[in-house]
Specification:
162 residues; alpha+beta; 5-stranded mixed β-sheet; 32% helix
Length: 162
């Protein structure tokens, strides 16, 4: 039987939440699914403060007892077609020791609840095609490829570093 866990919105001003945020994001960044490189010292020192300075950002943490085991970072954007907020799920991280227990799904449900509370019309996320467990989860809970007109195909996520 899977161990019980709890999920709640992070408080960036609480030292323990800020430490959990950095630890979990560093574990994710260090994983091949997160790029394989740990966070820089700059990011570790400034992440919680910088997120707190952005009212459009929120995070959800998962705990196994007192141990932080999962993180979802969300950033509110804006749907010009609907003239309402949207929420981008920017990071989903669960410690390897706790994967497969429904933690990501529970965190995403809480992130969605907060998005609805904010009046968001949709949630978006990016996922690497090779991360099959994540793709399977996201599809199962209702995410699908973005398209406006099926004849035009699905959208691709692209980036350009500045």
């Amino acid at each position: 039987m899977a161990a019980a866990f709890s999920v709640r919105r992070a408080d960036y001003g609480r030292a323990s939440d800020a430490a959990a945020l950095v630890m979990l994001l560093d574990a994710y960044a260090s994983d091949p699914a997160g790029g394989g490189d740990p966070l820089s010292d700059f990011v570790k020192a400034n992440l919680a403060r910088e997120l707190a300075a952005r009212p459009q950002a929120y995070s959800v943490l998962a705990f196994d007892g007192e141990q932080p085991v999962g993180l979802v970072n969300c950033i509110e954007g804006f749907s010009s077609f609907k003239c309402k907020p949207l929420v981008n799920v920017h990071d989903v991280a669960v410690l390897a020791s706790h994967r497969g227990r429904g933690i990501a799904e529970a965190m995403l449900a809480e992130a969605e609840r907060i998005a609805v509370e904010r009046g968001a019309v949709k949630m978006t996320l990016e996922v690497l095609s090779g991360n099959e467990p994540a793709v399977k989860l996201y599809r199962r809970i209702g995410y699908e490829g973005y398209q406006l007109d099926p004849a035009m195909g699905t959208a691709s996520f692209m980036q350009k570093w500045l």
